[in-house]
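Q: Second attempt. The first request was missing the SMILES, so the protein and 2-acetamido-2-deoxy-beta-D-glucopyranose are both included now.
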Amino acid sequence: MVATSRLVGACIALTSQMVSSAALPPKGCPAQNHGGIPMPKEFQRYQQKYRENLLAVLPTGKCTEETIGIRKSWDEIDDNTRLGYIRAVHCLASKPALTDRRLAPGAVNRLDDFTYIHINQTNIIHGSGYLLPWHRIFLTQFETALREECGYEDYLPYWDNARFSEDPLRSKVWDGSSSSMGGNGLYLKNDHGPYHEILPGVGNGNFTLAMPAGSGGGCVQDGPFQNFTISLGPVAKENIDLTNKYGYKANPRCLSRNFHVKSSEGILTWANATKIVTSPTIHELRINIESLWHKNSHTFIGKEGADPFSTTNDPAFYLLHAQIDRLWAIWQGQDLESRTYAIDGNRTFFGLPLDYAPDVPPSLATIYDRMDMGLGFTPLTLEGMPMTDHDSCFVYQ
Ligand SMILES: *[C@@H]1O[C@H](CO)[C@@H](O)[C@H](O)[C@H]1NC(C)=O
Ligand SMILES: *[C@@H]1O[C@H](CO)[C@@H](O)[C@H](O)[C@H]1NC(C)=O
Ligand SMILES: *[C@@H]1O[C@H](CO)[C@@H](O)[C@H](O)[C@H]1NC(C)=O
Ligand SMILES: *[C@@H]1O[C@H](CO)[C@@H](O)[C@H](O)[C@H]1NC(C)=O
Ligand SMILES: *[C@@H]1O[C@H](CO)[C@@H](O)[C@H](O)[C@H]1NC(C)=O
Ligand SMILES: [Cu+2]
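A: Got both inputs this time. The predicted holo structure:
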């Protein structure tokens, strides 16, 4: 009883409101509705089932109801938590990189360690079977760095896109205030797209990504990441510089964005989120996440955040991917036994051969494959799949 109160406690204030709106009773902790389009009852039911099933298997090893990290929507946490998170991100940006300088001379700070390995692994961990497990471990490592190296006391927040799909700039993620991720980049008359970006490393430079013309293109103009200096990348470009193919050299510049609202309107909707969490198979789940959500969330941000390689340069990346991880978690949580370790997809981007490792066949990924998380950490894929085992211990609110 004492143990569960931590999870239920935060919801008590909500109870009367929940009852009057005839929503489901709070068990675990239902999301609040801080603005935007409320969560439909159908989605609430899936979220609730996920939460109940997940909490029912506790304790598993070191993960208990006492220790489980509760990941909340950026729009629902209070300003102090948001400011604490932002302060911790700046703190990582002020600490020296641990990555070997020979691998990435441009890696300056602890954020760059994450960006370096994300660039290095891009052609393996996107459009492949590793997308979900690799990013789950990556997020947990980032969350741990914020907490252990920078004193952040909460857990990783997520960007609940669906709540603001029709008007994303109203979300506290993007409203430009000092407790947001900041707003759009400066509108550049001649450099806001559309672009046809080449992805180096696959298809001998014949693979391009179409990027729509956004409404910005330049440096972020407000909020805590205004004039935020980044160093690695960009990597996906209209012309690849062969002397700096993966952007590992130092390239200090501001963080830029190029909001494309049409990537959100009518796309990052509750209906599509529901379609994802109700995917009948892991194959459909993966395809739905990639085609309905993942690509479009990145394209909405544009510029740095939309570069498949160095996207982590935009601190909003972590909120975006926590939402992807949450959708997978809710899907897994409908039937933990059969879905936790379900995997689908190839070992490389769209099953294409890698230019630098042509011997890696575009064969299917397995849960016993090793993944490279950087700094010498190479877990098995299966370690990135559970939510309350191995190094994971979290639940999305
Ligand atoms: C990634 O890093 C490894 C060394 O750990 C290197 O062999 C490989 O070429 C790198 N790949 C890319 C695309 O940078
Ligand atoms: C495309 O791939 C072919 C080999 O498959 C290569 O000869 C060519 O240089 C590549 N790049 C472009 C831009 O066509
Ligand atoms: C950001 O940089 C611009 C141009 O370098 C400068 O004019 C502006 O004062 C800076 N803003 C902040 C908040 O540092
Ligand atoms: C789901 O997303 C697709 C684009 O990927 C869009 O065409 C479709 O209208 C969306 N459906 C709903 C119901 O939001
Ligand atoms: C794996 O890659 C092959 C070859 O590109 C492709 O035909 C197949 O559809 C891919 N399978 C999955 C599950 O992505
Ligand atoms: Cu990624």
